[in-house]
Design a protein that fits this description.
Helix content is 20%, strand content 30%. It is of the alpha+beta class. It is globular, with a radius of gyration of 26 Å. Belongs to the glycosyl hydrolase 31 family. Keywords: Glycosidase, Hydrolase. One of its GO terms (molecular function) is carbohydrate binding. This is DUF5110 domain-containing protein.
Amino acid sequence: MPIAPSGEIVLSEDEEAYTIASPGLRAVAVKSPFSFKVYDDRGGLLANLLGIEWNEKRSQTALLAMDDRSHFYGLGEKTGFLDKKGERYEMWNSDVYAPHVPDIEALYQSIPWSIHFRYGLPAYGVLLDNPGRTAFDMRTRADRYQISAEKGALDLYIVQGPTLKDVVRHLTALIGRTPLPPKWSIGYQQSRYSYMSQEEVLQVARTFRKKQIPCDVLYLDIHYMDEYRVFTWDPVAFPRPHEMMRELEALGFQLVPIVDPGVKKDPSYPVYRQGVHNGYFCRKLEGEIFIGPVWPGPSAFPDFTDDGAAAWWGDLHVHYTSHGIKGIWNDMNEPSVFNDAKTMDLDVVHANNGDPKTHGELHNLYGMLMSKATQEGMKRHLSGERPFVLTRAGYAGIQRYATVWTGDNRAYWEHLAMSIPMVLNLGLSGVAFAGPDIGGFSHHTTGELLARWTQVGAFTPFCRNHSAIDTIRQEPWLFGEKVEDICRSYIGLRYRHMPTLYSLFYETSVSGLPIVRPLLMEFPDDANVYNLCDQFLFGPDLLIAPILRPGTFSRAVYLPAGVWIDYWTGERHEGGRWILAEAPLATMPMYVRAGGILAEQPLAMYADDEAAQSAPLTLTIYAGGDGQFRLYEDDGRTYAYEQGAYRLREFSWSEHSGSSTLRCQPAHDGLPHGIEKEEEGANADKQTLRIVVRQLSSAPAQAIVSGATLREWTYDAETRQLHAVVEGAAGNFELRFF
């Protein structure tokens, strides 16, 4: 069935066809020869299903029309460029340690979803809800693309537009949206396979603070466990985890340990005993528990399709929450097994809450169901705080439960470049909170590569530096002062823009729109951007143009229509053309659309740094056009926002006939002014806004405000910047310069 606007659905039949009509959509199923066409409310043809084919094994393939104008996006986590036309991909969650190259058809995530886009025509998407082995083929036939399922149903959803934004909104209304994460989880994160001891973890944390490099999260890979048994600590390397957590907490750090699904086969191990005794592990039809080799050796695997097993697994995480741990890293959950098939036997039978299915039928669900069990268990034991879950494997809708990182990449410049379209297409598939391992996981990074990757990573939704055990370490301070300063600067830039980033997370939680976007999403009529993926937008207004090759200190940047302002120099550029941007190692080209508004805070060392939390925010406006921005605030930790404890202010900037006006309209104010800090001084600060207007062409003669108090304002003719301080700015106000 098409995904339709709400309203009455009418089914009718005549000699030639069945017609399904609803407000906004009409579907016609022609009886012979079979076809299925979906039309929008203007009668325009959206999707044209030309037929369905079966092979000798009864596998099904749907054939949908495409033409020379067709472009394809989404498809989750795939290698290659942004536009997937001419490619074929399989959906089969796979642990791929080999270098990720364009001809790899399957990786860790399987999101059977594609967007069909043609300039000048309404866009639409197709979702195949089948967690077995499926494929999307935009290569084999010139006039049609193919969606196939090896087993099970072709359960297809046609998701209407007409715009790319509409398609993503409607998709995420169907499969779910990214909930608001804890604010600490959108800060910078540092990992290593592995930090081998409690003292090593603490030394890394102390060094971040000593060097004044912002960081919120450290990770523990598999070596923190007792012989790789999940829900244990190595008694020698991590003898006092509670003590370690107390120091980390005092320094402002969160700790995220890895938890794999494999449970060591060991009759003396309580987790294994409980799973066997209660029937929580995956089994063959005849009742034999499936045992597969992974890091602990022979291991059993929880059957997350069974609600009882999932709840048991979730509650085991009290082992971590009792120490103050609020985030978990799920790895190896494709599931990966060290055997010839690299996964669980396909004839394993999952309980599936009374509707048994083979693993071959449900394979791609395993990772998402593990993350669901983890997230729900953590939530039960965190006393109202939001948990953070990071996953390698997933399926359509994984964003409801976990953040996604793109797996075992390498310290290759090509992988830096490839990470951009990968994260962009994940965003177009509903997964807004995603990112690669900064610096590359495997192979040996260099100072130049780490600097350039950190520049990009500062503006990707998930921001983690991670490296493998047999590679040189890649903490930011290990490549000399120059690289350290660059990393410090750009990580600090992320923290300064934390109010903007957190507001973008709010937007994705309510609309499903991605945080980082291909230019095509904001400029769908621009024929130059259909496959442009070496630059991207952070929200709607900030254009990021990273350097993706070694020894490169300038690059061509495409600026879409409008006026764009160089973030660093303030130089104005007319859009609709390419420019040459200078990019010494310390500079990543960035441009703000005229009229764009960015919210900033003072530099913080971590998300809950009191100095930043209690200080006034700065609203930076880039003059030369009209713009809007919604600023979202809550406590950053709990679910109180679900009961209305948040503040949402809608800012607009307009320029007309020599005057400029900033308006603030509260859309919701469920926070006491200054709830973040109860002291009176902090209350006053949280009601104060610093306003900076960049590239304002001339000095205003005067400024007036209504609904608030204008404490002061100045204009610097040399920099063409206006500075103002507005008190009592939590409510409705208007500030006008003329």
